[in-house]
Structures are given as structure tokens and as C-alpha cells.
Write a sequence for this structure.
């Protein structure tokens, strides 16, 4: 069984034992949580964009060679209000909603006064994140929703603004070995300043959390980065880190705050307030983890749009930054539902395909070097960093491959030099038809695909005490568009990329965005 990408999903809140074909490794014990949009219409109203759909969470619990599945809608305030009204009344990024569309212009104008500073949705349909011992469904607004990782029941609504002044926040934090979480948020026009805030949510014991409350209460601001423009902060979806640095990309895809404040009155969605400025350069910030200061050197590159960082690492006085980059912001437009319905799964030339790019940032450039000289000294990359006037460096990336997105790797190598990356091949259209393992040294790929199948973002799980970086398995959900065949949960060997097992859950699966694996605690 399967669902069309714009059909409303069905939840299966009770645990459902899957039919396993193949042999799941005995060491693989834990739960993969996945999150994504699942409800696209309420009553007679429909969302305009796939990203806007109300969230449905899925869990695949793996234990002793068996898989147990369940799914549940995120019962956010957005979900409850929309359901009660039997229509979409809470706006999302690509869909502006109105409490009563029959009201005339005067009523709309009066209502506008209450929407100058919008109260964002709590429909966390992008990812699952962990702060302390709690798990949250998240998008990129100031609201996240705590969930029960076993039952998937929706719990507390949490407002970042109660803990630090961020109106928007990334849905891709980083985690260190101790369990501390790091993330970026945007503070809009607070005290006449717009800035990016790097914050840390410390790891806490279950005892301390039970006594003191959620880990977010102990959040620490590590660094603030001034925005290049007061009213047009950069959009970002992720960031990078190494042992000694955080990497934040301030790109020329920007949110126009004044346009956003008047979007409701003008009857346009907030996505229309995102502007890509191809004439502007991209600024890459390096933040010293020890001092919390942005390094003095200014690293620039041409205009680009980055949603996903792959990894970053250090080598001989350089920071290497791997990202998935686009030449423009046409990817977002490719997921408007009317366009997806017109051309479902076919080759799409209307959006720019992504490139896997490697930037190299010299961390201590010699001030005596002449203007026009390349400061990159690494022999294994063609990336460059050329000195310009005033000491700034213009960086050109090495393109490692094309048509690759939703990158995941062995997270044990996060911030370290890596070789292998797992992701979706999107060389022909934005909706993936295959997943791939990319070797950054040989520049070769291994692929997995099957007729009528569209896989999700792959998640790599390392084997305990593994012998190599790719010693482990890759987990993905797979949507089968053939109504006579079932969708399934897929397990691949991380080295060979051959199928190890699959699990049929005997219920419809929906396309999702991102996932989080929780290993079983011994």
C-alpha cells in the first residue's frame, strides 16, 4: 500500500509488527524516528506546498531481528485548530490562511493589525531533535513540540523565546560525545539589531532533569553574529562544526522582514518574502569554539543556496567545509503541490540540480601574501582561497559530484575527516528515485534503486566497534508507487550497499523529510 505525495496520510498509533524479509543484524537494536508532512487538506481547503503539510511521525523499533512500526499525527495547536475549524486557519510558509475567507477587505485590514508580527505555526514537520533527555518535533519557527519517542504522543509546546531571543531556529542541531546540543537561531530586530545566535543546550542527567526541568532552561549563548542587513536576515537550514570551529554560512537567500510583516495584508504567503540575490556574495563565518568569537578573516564565495551541510573537518591549518549547494532557490518552488501533480516523478528541468561542493578555508593566512595568491596548500583538493584587497579571501569550491542531496554520514566522524557520504540521487528530479553511497576519495557512487520506488533520506548506523568508517547499515523508508505492491523499511549494508533486509508494515507510508535514530540502551 502507498500514498500519493499530496494525499492525506493515515496514522497507525498502535504498534504493528512488520513482515521482515532477510536477516537483520543482531547488533542493530534501537528506534528510527522519522518526521514529515502528512495532511495536505482539511475540509475543502488545501495547502499549496508539500513542506506545509501537517506533521506525521513514524517509528521503526528494531529489536532481536524484528521491526515494530507505528505512526501518529503531531497534535500541535495548529493541528487542533485546523481540525476544529475543518479548514486550514493557521498559515504556513507557502500557504497564507485566513480565519474567514468570506470577510471583506475592511475586516481583513483590521485583522492585519494583529498579524504585523506573525505568531508562527507549531507544526514541526521537518525533523526530530534531542535536547537533554527530551525529543522534539521541529520545523524552523520558535516553536517545537515535545514528543514521547516510544508512543509518539504529542506533549508540551515549547517556545524558544522563553529561553533565548530567537524567532527562527535551525532544525539540524549538532551533538557532541557528551550529549550537548548546539544550534543556531535568528533574532529579528531585537533592540534595533538582527543577529544570528549560536547556542548550546547542555546534556543533563535524568535525575537533574526531573529536578530542574527541561535542559533548555540551562541554554547558553555561545556567540552572536551580526546580520549583514537589519531587515533581511539570511535563510539557513543547517551549519557545520569541527573540533575547534563552528561554520555558519550567511547566504544571499534572505527573508525580507518588512514584506513578511505585511504579507497577511497583501494576501501573499511568507515564502514570497524570501529573496535570492544572485549579484551578492556568500559570506562564510568561522567561529572559534574556545573563544566564542568570529575569526577576523572574511571568507567569501559566489552566490549560492545551501540547505544541508555534509561535514566539516580540519587539516594542516585549513577548515574543509562540505555542503550541498544550489545556484538559486528554485528547489523550494519545485515542491509546490500543483507543480508536483503536473509532473510527478518525471525529469524536471525547472529547478537547478544540486552540487556537492568542498570549500577550503585557511585558518591563519599569512598577512604578507600578495593579493591574487591562493592560500590553500592541500594537495588533494582543487578548492582555492585567493587573497583580495583588505585581506578577505575569495573561495572557490571543488565540485565533488552533482545531483546529490539529503546527505548523512557516520556521525562518529562528524567534525573529523570523512570518506563516505550517503544520500539521495536527485540528478533528474527533486523527488529521489534512488539512494547512493558516495566515496569522496575515488569520486565514485554505489546505488540502490527499485522499479516504482522512491526512497527517503538514508540514515547510517555504525556497527559497535566497527572496523571501518562504513562498517554499519543504512536505514531508509521506501515508497512504492505501484498500488499492488507495498512500501517498506529498507536496511542496506553500509560497505557493499547491498540489501540486508526489508520490513513490510502492511499499511500506507508517506514521504517524509528527516530522521533520528535512538540506540537501545543496554
Amino acid at each position: 500500500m502507498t500514498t500519493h505525495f499530496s494525499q492525506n496520510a493515515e496514522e497507525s498509533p498502535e504498534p504493528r509488527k512488520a513482515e521482515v524479509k532477510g536477516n537483520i543484524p543482531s547488533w542493530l537494536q534501537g528506534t528510527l524516528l522519522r518526521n514529515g508532512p502528512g495532511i495536505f487538506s482539511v475540509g475543502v481547503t488545501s495547502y499549496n506546498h508539500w513542506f506545509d503539510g501537517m506533521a506525521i511521525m513514524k517509528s521503526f523499533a528494531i529489536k532481536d531481528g524484528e521491526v515494530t512500526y507505528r505512526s501518529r499525527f503531531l497534535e500541535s495547536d495548529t493541528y487542533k485548530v485546523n481540525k476544529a475549524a475543518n479548514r486550514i486557519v493557521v498559515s504556513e510558509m507557502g500557504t497564507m490562511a485566513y480565519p474567514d475567507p468570506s470577510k471583506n477587505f475592511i475586516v481583513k485590514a483590521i485583522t492585519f493589525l494583529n498579524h504585523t508580527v506573525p505568531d508562527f505555526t507549531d507544526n514541526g514537520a521537518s525533523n526530530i531533535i534531542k535536547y537533554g533527555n527530551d525529543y522534539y518535533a521541529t520545523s524552523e519557527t520558535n516553536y517545537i513540540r515535545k514528543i514521547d519517542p516510544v508512543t509518539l504522543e504529542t506533549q508540551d509546546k515549547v517556545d524558544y523565546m522563553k529561553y533565548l531571543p530567537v524567532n527562527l531556529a535551525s532544525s539540524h542541531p549538532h551533538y557532541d560525545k557528551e550529549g550537548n546540543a548546539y544550534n543556531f537561531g535568528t533574532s529579528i530586530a531585537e533592540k534595533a539589531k538582527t543577529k544570528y545566535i549560536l547556542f548550546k543546550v547542555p546534556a543533563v542527567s535524568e535525575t537533574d532533569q526531573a529536578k530542574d526541568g527541561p535542559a533548555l532552561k540551562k541554554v547558553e549563548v555561545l556567540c552572536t553574529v551580526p546580520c549583514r542587513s537589519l531587515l533581511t536576515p539570511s535563510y539557513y537550514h543547517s551549519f557545520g562544526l569541527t573540533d575547534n570551529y563552528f561554520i555558519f554560512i550567511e547566504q544571499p537567500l534572505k527573508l525580507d522582514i518588512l514584506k513578511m510583516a505585511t504579507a497577511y495584508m497583501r494576501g501573499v504567503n511568507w515564502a514570497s518574502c524570501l529573496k535570492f540575490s544572485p549579484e551578492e556574495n556568500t559570506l562564510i563565518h568561522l567561529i572559534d569554539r574556545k573563544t566564542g568569537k568570529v575569526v577576523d578573516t572574511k571568507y567569501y564565495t559566489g552566490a549560492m543556496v545551501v540547505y544541508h551541510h555534509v561535514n566539516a573537518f580540519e587539516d594542516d591549518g585549513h577548515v574543509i567545509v562540505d555542503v550541498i549547494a544550489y545556484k538559486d532557490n528554485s528547489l523550494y518552488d519545485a515542491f509546490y503541490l500543483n507543480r508536483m501533480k503536473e509532473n510527478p516523478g518525471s525529469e524536471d528541468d525547472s529547478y537547478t540540480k544540486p552540487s556537492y561542493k568542498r570549500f577550503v578555508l585557511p585558518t591563519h593566512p599569512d598577512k604578507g601574501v600578495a593579493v591574487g595568491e591562493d592560500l590553500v596548500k592541500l594537495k588533494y583538493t582543487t578548492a582555492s582561497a585567493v587573497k583580495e584587497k583588505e585581506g578577505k579571501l575569495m573561495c572557490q569550491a571543488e565540485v565533488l559530484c552533482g545531483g546529490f542531496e539529503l546527505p548523512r554520514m557516520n556521525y562518529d566522524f562528524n567534525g573529523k575527516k570523512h570518506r563516505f557520504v550517503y544520500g539521495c540521487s536527485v540528478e533528474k528530479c527533486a523527488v529521489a528515485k534512488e539512494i547512493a553511497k558516495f566515496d569522496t576519495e575515488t569520486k565514485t557512487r554505489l546505488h540502490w534503486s527499485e522499479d516504482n520506488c522512491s526512497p527517503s533520506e538514508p540514515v547510517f548506523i555504525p556497527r559497535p566497534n566497527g572496523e571501518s568508517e562504513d562498517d554499519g547499515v543504512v536505514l531508509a523508508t521506501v515508497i512504492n508507487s505501484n498500488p499492488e505492491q507495498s512500501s517498506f523499511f529498507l536496511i542496506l549494508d553500509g560497505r557493499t550497499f547491498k540489501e540486508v533486509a526489508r520490513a513490510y508494515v502492511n499499511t500506507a507510508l508517506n514521504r517524509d523529510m528527516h530522521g533520528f535514530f535512538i540506540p537501545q540502551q543496554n
In short: The longest strand covers residues 305-315.
